[in-house]
User: What shape does this take?
Amino acid sequence: MTEEPQSAPPSRRALLGWGGAGLALGAAAAGGAVAVAQNQSDAAGAGAAVPFHGAHQAGIATPVQDRLHFAAFDVKTEDRAAFVQLLKDWTAAARRMTAGKTVGDGAYGGLAEAPPDDTGEALGLQPSRLTLTLGFGPSLFDKFGLADRRPAALVDLPSFPGDDMDSSRTGGDLCVQACADDPQVAVHAIRNLARIGFGTVAVRWSQLGFGKTSSTTPGAQTPRNLMGFKDGTRNIAGDETGRLGEFVWVGDRDGGSKDAWMSGGSYLVARRIRMNVETWDRSSLQEQEDVFGRDKGEGAPVGKAKERDEPFLKAMKPDAHVRLAHPDSNGGITILRRGYSFTDGTDGLGRLDAGLFFLAYQRDPRKGFIPLQRRLSAQDALNEYIQHVGSAVFAIPPGVRDAHDWWGRPLLSEEA
Amino acid sequence: MTEEPQSAPPSRRALLGWGGAGLALGAAAAGGAVAVAQNQSDAAGAGAAVPFHGAHQAGIATPVQDRLHFAAFDVKTEDRAAFVQLLKDWTAAARRMTAGKTVGDGAYGGLAEAPPDDTGEALGLQPSRLTLTLGFGPSLFDKFGLADRRPAALVDLPSFPGDDMDSSRTGGDLCVQACADDPQVAVHAIRNLARIGFGTVAVRWSQLGFGKTSSTTPGAQTPRNLMGFKDGTRNIAGDETGRLGEFVWVGDRDGGSKDAWMSGGSYLVARRIRMNVETWDRSSLQEQEDVFGRDKGEGAPVGKAKERDEPFLKAMKPDAHVRLAHPDSNGGITILRRGYSFTDGTDGLGRLDAGLFFLAYQRDPRKGFIPLQRRLSAQDALNEYIQHVGSAVFAIPPGVRDAHDWWGRPLLSEEA
Assistant: This one.
């Protein structure tokens, strides 16, 4: 299941610019470089590696890391073979980077005339729980003769009331979600994938995020969004196998045999939600608590004492966010959220360009985000303070099984 | 020296939305909230508080924290008293936030009709070594009758060859540098200062940074910039009192009696340096190493084995960055650098908008950044791969001495 002997796993540091493999391993030992975690039980440590291979892609049910770099790409080639090669090259690079290694095999030290295989800024950093998660946008299926393989569930998102979309932050043929506990590790990963894809794909838009605003770690403290409220308390935890199977992972028979290649995958809806923080910050505490349906200090639902107390929805205002978003108000709709706060400087009016980059994974957007957002966009009291300004939807193929597998093989392999 | 009794220092968590002080303290104990560090020896811990009071402002010689939110403000009032009140309000808020507390005294829990004194997103987070450092830009001295108090050393920066300035990222009447180990803590601080200043000041531009590219901690591993190289190896360390006094802190007699109010202060030059990473990533390893004058793996100067080996400048190419920037090539010019990497998504051409937000502290820019940058802008081989796209200079007043003092008092107090 592993791509190379792992008796002495080198860190990124060991693999750049030091010539032969013997030298590199010696340097790793001498430099006290960080060993790569070799089994899943280590994966929870902040600096450890998360396994890349599996039935599902990592970065969905994986406990949420602290930082995000998300990139949407457009395909620039009409050559199917070149696109398949890119996916193979990306897989190889992702396999190495998530293990804390440099891109490339490190044996290029002698080739001073060539560009380095790795850009180098993550040298000496830990794997930092890096996960890389690949997705296919609807527009990809207009290319390479893939039209009849577009999954039924990969629908274009409708327009919702209040949407104010910036086309430069919308759509994309591909996406890669990079999550890590160190932003430099996440940025390094996206940059190197973009570099590898030069000429074949180009970044369409990207988004950095910090301060995870939801937790898939059971029992962990719920982070606060930039409105100062705990949000995402009742998220699906990564160890809830039953709920993951019901609400997140695509089943064997979903969509019939045509969509069988998506089995074990998921669907991602990404929304850039701008918060009008200046307006929010001038609203009263009562208004803020009414809007969410929680108290601000503890995060407890209206009338309750503790964050995780079962909410009594009827005690909340009819347009309270928690009430409207709750599965009980939506026929049980449940999505897995991995939101990140963003602050992208200041807009032309001196206002903070800040908000929530909302990432929702689900088994079928037609039964997940779309009906939920129809209700929220029509009724949520929060709408006075937020705007959806970017949007995309992606089919997330199943995981890369082993060292011979590659991202998207079930969709693109001629033998599939 | 402290502003209030500190027998039971509450964390941010304890101080919002829970009514009376007794309740708040009880909740802090029950919630396992983080205690605020009470003495300087704790300040090195990643989550601890850095003392706010002192002869110099914190955030200059302080060991570099992991994250940055830097904001430049313009003054929107002509009322000197309103501006002085803002500085007093900012000081009070900064004193609390750097100690890990909420803005405001926390006793407003009963006032549900009022906006909260604190926006809340840092509740439950540690102080995270937050420092807040205030500066005055040249344009401030055109206001409030301050023209004759502008320090001689606060010159407007000249244009340098290759500058490609974006006016929306340049200048400012005021600046606040927020550094912390948690980005949410840094963002929270700038946002709350902007909120307090509503109507009096407005954010002109701001910049987030991550992945510090220099270290003022002696012996610490030098971080890598987004070109993958170690940079800033020979920075001034925070414990080098002699070099700080010689190169960073303004002396008692600098500028004569007119500028005496700046004694103990410093001058900050901020430059947003965009890196053309796509071009860089396609250049050869040899070219990259020649440009810097170091090897990429270890960071050793040309011909040497280790990063901290004394460089032999003549072994480097004449236009190598390390050679040109070295004090020996510049009559001893030495500046204290606190650079941060930035990645602000993607530009309209699909290129990463990434680079170095360069922050240099010095005793006198006329003897620091300006002559150094004249040389670098004319000769540095790195210029092929970078562009300076934002710029500002600020006088950094001395530290806030105690609980009765406030930022800028030596400049603005009528009794001064």
